[in-house]
Amino acid sequence: DQQVKQNSPSLSVQEGRISILNCDYTNSMFDYFLWYKKYPAEGPTFLISISSIKDKNEDGRFTVFLNKSAKHLSLHIVPSQPGDSAVYFCAASASGTASKLTFGTGTRLQVTL
Amino acid sequence: DTGVSQDPRHKITKRGQNVTFRCDPISEHNRLYWYRQTLGQGPEFLTYFQNEAQLEKSRLLSDRFSAERPKGSFSTLEIQRTEQGDSAMYLCASSLPGVGEAFFGQGTRLTVV
Questions:
Q1: Cα–Cα distance between A80 and A78 in angstroms, integer?
Q2: Can you spell out the DSSP letters for B39-88?
Q3: Percent of chain B at pLDDT above 70?
Q4: With contacts defined as CB-CB under 8 Å, which chain B residues touch A93?
């Protein structure tokens, strides 16, 4: 039972354009959501998070939007840069903290020149 | 570097052998987590500690797996009688309690032949 779903396995975007990565969840108990970026042979790196009491959180080029009624969140990267090419994982927690994260299967983003 | 450190980075073992991995968390973090990631999947939660207490274990953690954090600092994950299905990346993460993000190490890649 995949409680966190990333339905797009891959995404290709031109440098300078917006990248939009999507994530859906099914567990209504999830109240905290995170995005991680992962390069090959490295562990995931935390990018940005959002609590269920908010619908938007912004940090530099990264913005996460949360639509609780649709159980959907998205990560926007503007402008996209070649160094953003990586696998992006959406994760969710039911405790408002980092304990016991449930991850999606990831979306591979490629930013082309 | 004061990030999460895992050792070894790679381990190849024969089926039936025992293996042990070590994780050193960020020094002020009293929560420590173990995850497992297989190809094409996101990390899956295995277990977590607050200080030396193991607070939760996933059903993925069979009898052959045991994790310890004896002094509330580093942790070890042991797999007994390894099977080919144990081949995966084992990730350790740490966080402060009540904080959203967990910081991951680079992982230990286990190959069982």
A1: 5
A2: TTS--EEEEEEETTEEEEE-TTS-TTEEEE-TTSS-EEEEESS--GGG-E
A3: 98
A4: 100
Structure tokens at B24: 């050193």
Q: B59 to chain A nearest CA, in Å?
A: 13
pLDDT tens, residue by residue, B3-38: 999 999 999 999 999 999 999 999 989 999 999 999
Contact assignment for B100 to A49 by CB distance below 8 Å: yes
Q: Nearest by CB to B42, from A45, A97, A104: name it.
A: A104
- Using the predicted structure, report yes or no on whether residue A75 has a pLDDT greater than 70: yes
Question: Which residues, 6 or more positions from B59, have their beta carbon under 8 angstroms from its beta carbon?
Answer: none
Count of helices and strands (H, E) across chain A: 0, 11
Residues 63-82 of chain B whose Cβ lies under 8 A from any Cβ of chain A: none
Chain A contact for B40, CB < 8 A? yes
Reduced to 3 states (helix: H, G, I; strand: E, B; else coil), residue A83 is helix
Give B80: exposed, middle or buried? Use CB within 10 Å, 0-12, 13-18, 19+.
middle
